[in-house]
Amino acid sequence: DAPLRRAIESDSPPSCILWGPPGSGKTSIARVIARVTNARFATLSAVSSGVADLRKVIASAEAGRRDGLARTILFIDEIHRFNKSQQDALLHAVEDGAITLIGATTENPSFEVVAPLLSRARVFKLEPLEHEDVKSLLIRALSDADRGLAGRASQDGHAPDPPPVDPEALDALATYGSGDARVALNALEAAVRDARSRNGPVTVDTVQSVAQRALPYDKGGDAHFDTISAFIKSVRGSDPDAAVYWLARMLEAGEDPMFVARRIVILAAEDIGLADPQALSVAVAAQQATHLIGMPECTLVLSEAAIYLARAPKSNSAMKAYSAAAGAVRQRGALSVPLHLRNAATGLMAAHGYGRGYQYAHDHEGGVAPDQQHLPDELSGASFYEPGERDVPQ
Known about the structure:
The chain has helices spanning about 1-10, 25-35, 50-65, 85-90, 90-95, 110, 115-120, 130-145, 165-175, 180-200, 205-210, 220-235, 240-250, 255-270, 280-295, 300-310, 315-330, 345-350; strands at about 15-20, 40-45, 70-75, 100-105, 120-125. The protein is an alpha/beta fold and about 400 residues long.
């Protein structure tokens, strides 16, 4: 991020939140700032720290400022782990400049950082590293004698130089990292150990043998919501290939199949609706089958349902009808039920006109009572359901 780079180079980083997935460089940026800044640099982890630790750092920063010392930069890793009261403890110190706060988080700060603190800090969003960026890091790790694998002697006395790494294996390691440099580097180190034990090169098979890791996916975070959103929009967009891909992304990463099944039922009613009423039966059957058989076989059921819905004609007329009716309810309130539609459960009710004049639909031609009003008087003639052009005619 150019503004952040300029701020670091000029030794004037603002209070900020570094938001990005694991391995995207949040902690590395903090280390760079610590290395180049003239400010005092303090580090806390929200996992193991509390308000007492914060107050200690803030008190030291305020004392240093009174004594004319350099300002204090406080880096808090996983700041989203702090609760509201812990985050509130930072407000005054950030507001009056006692500390420059740098927080790192994998979670959306809009939801995990309190609004007053968020308003006092810039948010820098870090994206997952590109494939070629991860490859460059891996190549550097293989050749760096100081911090990389080059020159690092193995415990069993093998030659310190790392074994050869096939180009295909390097690509596989970069792909395996999924934009997470830390994961890719750890996998490289494991692959090098494995290859050394065999006195051979690092191959694709080596990578596959050490890379037993689930896809990056946080069932409570952005990945969860982003992926289900992509799935829903793919079904709605009549793209069966994309629908089954996003379905696989969720299930292979450990998503609860019942969560997906519930969304499929909602999709059937919301987006297919009356264009193919059978779609709802397919979706409900898929939900029930998923509940009965579970993983991994339910993947077949969910795949069939997702593809069926993606291929089906689309109509949202039922959703629009309900939305219009709900709007009338909110606007007009609880209007009285017409007397002829009320249930005359007792003689007293009948005496008060409940049910009087009601026309039993089955007594009329076509099963429809002519001119019978079913809406409240105030809404007589109102129309909420507008047939969609793809709705199946009755």
